[in-house]
Every structure is written in structure tokens, then in C-alpha cells.
Amino acid sequence: MLPGGGAPGRLLRYGDGPDQVAEYYPGTDPTALVLFVHGGFWRARYDRTHARPLAAALSEAGFAVLLPEYRRVGQPGGGWPGTLHDVATAVDELPAAVAPQLPLLVAGHSAGGHLALWAAARHHLPPDAPGARPAAQGIRGVLGLAPVADLASASRLGLGDGATDAFLGGSPADRPDRYAVADPTALPPPGTPVTVLHGLADDIVPTDVVRGYAADGRAEFVLLPGADHFGVITPGSEDWPHVVSALRKLADEAKGAEERQ
User: Fold this and answer.
1) Which residues of the chain have pLDDT under 50?
2) Which of these, 107, 111, 109, 108, lies nearest to 41 by C-alpha position?
3) InterPro entries from the xrefs (predicted)?
């Protein structure tokens, strides 16, 4: 089940809508800034509040953390294309506003993992696609936690009671144009280090939904024996140290890349 509780961070805005906000957890002497995109199958009934304990725990572990909200399916402007526009804007605007000196890592869980992987590949999108940008942004690493990385596969399996089709307005056969620009597996690799952590006991997003994304070596794919869908976002769980370790590794890789430049 979803974790609960947790104190809110400092509220920031990246748009005029009530869900175009983020919470900021500055941490103490952070090594990197983690922009964490929460999950919930892109649906309105799941918001950022369940990820507050994760954000607070990461800030205690040596990271500054941004926890953005975004418009979701069931809300005005949510789903296609508003959800994508919101995440793209949050990634482009918020890090520079709070910690431009820190390397940026983008992470996400479940549907938020999809959005994190997609955000890192936006420079490959055609100019008229939602969230397109002409050049790679400053993302230095990506962490997907049980991500819905292959939208076509998720649609075929009917994950989340048809959540993918609700998000994109139909199946891949109905909306091939949308899947072509929203599905991370259909896009070229981001060009930055990507790590995926996924529990072998996950019965909400099966590991097969990630294997297609990771098959060509575009991500380090780490399977966690015994882990379910929510252990990776629950501080104090047996799976939590793997999350912190993966982010520290990405931060170290980003630092090393900067020193070599």
C-alpha cells in the first residue's frame, strides 16, 4: 500500500494552476538535486503527498529534493497532453530556481518513473510534440523505480484498469501518434546514465514492462528479490538502501563527468 504522512516541503510554483506546484526539501550540504516524480497511474486521486516521506528521507541522506505535482487524468487539463507539459515545465524551470549549482538527477516511481524516463529523452522528440525541446537539458542521471517504462506493453496488459489508455486517449492502435512520442521505449536512449530498480514480487507493474526498455542496454536494470511495488518508495524498508545507493552512484558519476570536462 502507499506510504502516508510526511511534512510538506517549501511550496514553489511553476504555473498558475493549483497542481502546477512543487515542494522543496533543501537538505544539508547536498551532493545533488533529485527531482522526484510521484506515481499513481497518472490519475487525479493519487497526489504528491504519499511521496513526502521519501522526499524527507532523501534530503536527510544528502540530497536536495524537488517533489513536483502535475495535472492528472480526471482533472481539467490532465492526461494528454497537459501531464507531459507540466512535467516538462517543472524539469526545465524548477532546478534553476532552487539549486542551479547542483547536478540534476530525475527520478520517479511507477507512472512517475515513466515520466522521469520520458523527461530525460525529450530532446529526441519532434518539434511539435508535447514537451519537446531542441537540445538535451541538464539532467545528469535518471532513476526509475518500478517504472511504467513501456506504454505499449502496459496498454496491452491493461495495467491499472486501463490507466495507460486513459492517459493517452486510447490504445497504441487507436493513438499511434501519441504513443510514439510519450513511450520511453519508443524513443532513443536519453544519453545520460539510467538506472532502473524493480521488485521481482511487483504485481502492479510487472518486470516485463521494463525489460523492453532496458533490453538494448539503455539502462542498468536491477531486480530486487522479494520486493513489491511500494518497497522502493518506503523509507526504512529492506529495499530503501538500494534507492539511496543508486542515487549516490548517479551523483558520483555526474561529479566525475564534470571533473573530466
Assistant:
1) none
2) 111
3) AB_hydrolase_fold, BD-FAE-like_dom, GDXG_lipolytic_enzyme
Indicate whether 166 belongs to any domain.
Answer: yes
For residue range 222-248, list pLDDT tens digits in order: 999 999 999 999 999 999 999 999 999
Query: Which residue segment(s) compose the domain that 49 sits in?
Result: 10-260
Asked whether 104 and 95 are in contact (CB, 8 A), the reply is: yes
Residue that is written with C-alpha cell 538494448 in the block? 216
Q: Is residue 89 part of a domain?
A: yes
Q: What are 224's three cell numbers?
A: 530486487
Helix axes 240-260, 52-60, angle to 10 degrees: 50
Bridge partners, 143 (sequence order): 107, 195
Position 2 in a domain: no
Whole-prediction pTM value? Answer: 0.96
Does residue 5 lie within any of the structural domains? Answer: no
Task: Render pLDDT for 157-176 as a digit per residue (tens, 0 to 9).
Answer: 999 999 999 999 999 999 99
Q: Which residue has the cell 502535475?
A: 70
Helix (H) or strand (E) holding 250: helix 240-260
Question: Phi, psi at residue 212, to the nearest 5°?
Answer: -65, -40
Task: Provide the 3-class DSSP secondary structure of residue 231.
Answer: helix
Contact present, 47 and 21 (Cβ < 8 Å): no
Q: Count structural domains, the chain.
A: 1
